[in-house]
Amino acid sequence: MSVRHQVRAFVERLFENLKDKAKEGEYTIYCLYMPKEDADVEELELMDFKVCLSDAESVKKFLDRATKETLEMEVKGFYLLGMVLDKGGEYVISSEDPKAEELKDQIINKIESLKEE
After folding, report:
1. d(CA 90, CA 44)
2. Residue 107 has pLDDT above 70, yes or no
3. Cα–chain-centroid distance for residue 77?
4. Do residues 29 and 85 make contact, with C-beta atoms less than 8 angstroms apart?
5. 78 in Cβ contact with 36 (< 8 Å)
6. pTM of the prediction?
7. Which stretch of DSSP H or E encloses residue 94?
8. Is the pLDDT of residue 12 over 70?
9. b/e map 89-113, b = 16+ CB within 10 Å
10. Cα separation of 110 and 23, whole Å?
11. CB atoms within 10 A of CB 45
């Protein structure tokens, strides 16, 4: 399996965990990228995407863009820590990395501060 296919499979797994916890409709999903080296939450990079869960084309575009961004971020020395689904102020985190749970409060604070800007 190529690196691209492995990344796509990982992105799809994280997304499925979020999709199971949401109703149909449009949501913002944040992809969380951490430096591979120094895991400081201040270095966390966020990419936000609007996704309509009831629209297959919207979901496909999200998965394509998230896969592309993840591959590009890998080259820059970051890895996909997880995804966050914004359910109107309630946040659902999907990750296979225990760091995401440890950093949950800081991640949510960072998302909220970005939303205010």
Report:
1. 20
2. yes
3. 16
4. yes
5. yes
6. 0.91
7. strand 91-94
8. yes
9. eeebbbbeeeebeebeeebbebbee
10. 25
11. 14
What pLDDT is stored for residue 20 in this prediction?
Answer: 85
The pLDDT of residue 35 is 92
Query: How far is Cα of residue 99 from the mean position of the Cα atoms in its chain?
Result: 14
Bridge partners (DSSP) of residue 48 are: 30
**Distance, CA of 20 to CA of 73 (rounded, Å):** 26
CA distance 117 to 102: 25
Query: Are 79 and 11 within 8 A, CB to CB?
Result: no
Give the tokens for residue 32: 């969380």
Would you place residue 39 in the very low, low, confident or very high pLDDT band (cuts 50, 70, 90)?
low
- Where helices occur in the chain by DSSP H, the ranges are 3-19, 56-75, 98-102, 104-116
DSSP 53: T
| 56-75 helix and 3-19 helix, angle to the nearest 10 degrees | 130
